[in-house]
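Hey, can you fold this one?
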Amino acid sequence: MLETKDLRFFSVVAASSSLAAAARALDVTPPAVSQRLAQIETRIGLQLVERGRGRLTLTTIGDALAQRAEIVLDEIENINEEILAHRDRISGPLHVIAPFGFGRAHVAPVLSQLVQDHPDVSLNLTLSDAPYREIASSNWDLLIHVGQLRDSSHIQRKLASNRRFLVASPAYLEKWGTPAHPGDLSSHRCGVVREDLADVTMWSFSEVDGPEHSIRIHPVFASNDGGVIKSWALDDLGIIQRSEWNVAREIGQGQLVQLLPDFRLPNADIVALLSPRTLRTARVDHALKRLVDAYSSPPWSAPASNES
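Sure. Predicted structure:
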């Protein structure tokens, strides 16, 4: 009664907020979507979508069909992909979610090379200021996360170690002095990146074979963009925390100074979460291997501390 093309069509409709949105996704007119949907409903003798509402709402049977269609279409796609993989070809859609800064600098170039080598892969890279918030969406294959990860039932793979550093510009330190202990930060100008619901004003440090130190700082500058915070530190505004991948170059060039080298901030390792929907597909395996290989010797590794 239903053909594969019907399932593909209805999957797009079910994932859309309205029939007009479905029409845009399918690159057809809204009347064409309404007509084809009505034809499918007539053929199976069941109503799949509630009519007369602003937002598209599925009926109970429509919701059940949408879920089953996703499973069936994924399985068909996986079968085709396995066949192509045996012929040394990688194909199909690949949707990756990554943080803005790290995604631009270190994920996008790897994926670009992948598509150049395998032009049958259809790539979609979504950059987000909080990738973990996107985890509820079913429409992703790999999710790249930098930092401590909340409890997750998703399979994860560590891509690279990544330290967090406390840094400031030489000019700032010349004017305000260099902190020798985490407790000294209370008298310094500090900046933070505000993201998710994390308590970004509580800075925690640990010593080798020593006690832990938690310091509540009172930021004088803040942004939801890590790039902005780093640029302000380079403009001599104050002290910030940033990932090694983000400031290693500036430390090496002397534009930023690593502070409190005897005290460690919590690591912010780079991990990939794998969607259970596409966990074993060849394109996801291949993309994951590319990322692991690219970060096996991290290009951002910082040099020795340049204390002032």
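The first strand starts at residue 49 and ends at 50. Let me know if you want another pass with a different chain boundary.
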